[in-house]
Design a protein that fits this description.
Blueprint lengths: L1 H18 L3 E2 L14 E3 L7 H12 L2 H4 L1 H4 L9 H8 L3 H6 L2 E4 L13 E2 L6 E4 L1 H10 L1 H16 L8 H12 L2
Parallel strand pairs: 2-3, 3-5
Antiparallel strand pairs: 1-2, 4-5
Helix pairs in contact: 2-8, 7-8, 8-9
Length: 178
Amino acid sequence: MAFAANSVHFLFLCLAVAVFPAVDVSAAGGSARGDDEAVLVDPRLGLAFPRVVREAARLLENGACRLLLRDFSDDRTGLPLEETLAALDTSPAIFLRSIRFRSGREDPRCFSPYRMAYVVPGNRDVVICPALYNGVHRQYGDSTVVIVLHEALHAMGLGENPPGSREITTAVEHRCSR
């Protein structure tokens, strides 16, 4: 009986390590204890991707970029995303850093060369497709930040159609350009 209980605990530990291998602790003294700079990024996305997420979080705290949270509403409540975050008692940057970014390399939804990323609205598990981290990120670094911000809005509860994907991306580019 003790063997079975220990086996279950071991299996749970293995599962936890497999599901959450992506805590980035390389940022300016960040640690897995929840420091402001720690982000959840699948290592298969490459060494630069955590910096992209931190840059997106920094931009979302900026006054102009932060206005996106008033521009768009949570589909579940009809309230501005700003109010969704207030109800969660969190800042935009902390929310963004709580999103888990994982590789979609084996995900059939990523087999299209045009799909950059996706998330189910209201879910904090963003799938980054190979088209983004293999091509766009290497050629157009700023576009990767825009796509991370676009997906973060969906993770906060923004649906799509309406507004359309292009409309969301244009708003992010307009509000968050450096």
